[in-house]
Amino acid sequence: MTVAIIRTIMIYVCIVAALRIMGKRQLGELQPSELVVTILVSNIATLSIEDTNIPLLGSVLPIFMLVSCEVIISVISLKSSRFRRLVSGNPRILIRDGILDQTEMKNLRWSLDDLMEQLRMNGCFDIREVNFAVVETSGMLSVHKKRDGAQGRDPAPPMNIICDGETDRHALEFLGLDPNWLNAVLREEGVKDSDIFLMICDRGGGYSIIKREKQQ
Amino acid sequence: MKRFVIVLIIVGGILCVCVYSMFMVERVKGEMDVYADAVFAAIDSGSHLGLASGVEAFVGYWREEEHSLVRFVRHSQVDEISRSMAKLKSLARFEDYTQLHAELSSISWQMEHICESEPPTLGNIM
Hey, is the C-beta of A99 within 8 angstroms of any chain B C-beta? Predict the structure, then answer.
């Protein structure tokens, strides 16, 4: 019994250390791979506590290996947007310009009940109030509401058109902007797309640029 | 990046522990085979003195190495070998050579099995 208690304390310390290495995230914001790691870590931890026949290293090493894999994957995801899309997926637009995309709902296997629940959790009790709704990679719904008394087409929320030096052609297309316009803007600002950390843009052509910090 | 470096060190440490555990199990198996062969030879030659000292040395060696093995191997597997080891002295003392031979073979087989389960082969992984 004493052995089980001491193992429990040791495993607890290991898990806290492992989660510190992984970094802080609210449970609802976890990416799929992070959720898998969290569930696996809890299951593996109980093995050594419940069964003293299993060596303590039989739990500790797999826990740290899982966390290490998670950190390595997150570093690779940081460097490669393709890898990031492979691991985490892409956000999906469910409501675009106030119009519900039923095909996308089917692809996501979302029922109307799921959608309405998520809208209510975002403080939106009338779907007609919604301008844009995006299902994030964590599964949560982000909602952009229409402006009160808006005339004509409500502006879409601004989008990232350059991320970490890479231009997102789909975002440009969605905003109805020309790649030539972008090139002209970059020329005017005296920067290349590789110099830009983040550039956001709205439909009206309003933009904001954050340049890459120079490594010292 | 600091976190990445820490993680690389952890992975390196884990790999070192895995290699060390494989090396240790191999070493113990090798030593046990030597002791077991000495006892088999004593049985075949009919030397009672040789048999008693051989069994004593074998059991004594296992008692020393058992504690290191349980850090890496399932206790149930190690306990199986310990159970067989506990019988050896009595079997040697009362000259039950058939059963003694069988227990020694069983111990060798179990140690072989533990050794074969350690390396990361496709069969072991699946």
Answer: no
Tokens coding A62: 């797999």
Name the residue of chain B whose CA is nearest to A55's CA. B71
Residues in chain B: 126
pLDDT, one tens digit per residue, over B3-22 is: 889 999 999 999 999 999 99
First-to-final CA distance of chain B:
34
State the Cα–Cα distance between residues B75 and B64, nearest whole angstrom: 15
CA dihedral B64, B69, B70, B75 (to 10 degrees): -100
Query: pLDDT band at residue A55, thresholds of 50, 70 and 90?
Result: confident
Which residues of B are less than 8 Å from A72 in CB distance? 4, 7, 11
Asked if A54 and B74 come within 8 Å (Cβ–Cβ), the reply is yes
With 0-12 / 13-18 / 19 or more C-beta atoms within 10 angstroms meaning exposed / middle / buried, residue B84 is buried
User: How close B19 comes to chain A (CA, Å)?
Assistant: 13
User: What ipTM was predicted for this assembly?
Assistant: 0.76
Domains and CATH numbers, chain A: 2-87 (no CATH), 90-145 (3.30.240.20), 159-211 (3.30.240.20)
Q: SS3 of A173, please? A: helix
Q: Which two tokens stand for residue A124?
A: 């939106």
Q: Residue B14 is nearest to which of A61, A71, A72, comparing CB atoms?
A: A61
Q: How far apart are CA A37 and CA A73, in angstroms?
A: 12
pLDDT of res. A24: 59
- The reported pLDDT for the residue numbered A84 is 84
- Give the full edge-to-edge strand order of the sheet including A130-135: A99-100, A92-96, A130-135, A141-145
Chain centre to alpha carbon of residue A94: 16
pTM given for the model: 0.71
Domains of chain B, earliest start first: 24-118 (1.20.120.290)
A-chain CB neighbours of B14 within 8 Å are: 61, 64-65, 68
Q: Which two tokens stand for residue A196?
A: 């830009």
Q: How many CA atoms lie within 13 Å of B38's alpha carbon, on the beta-carbon side?
A: 17
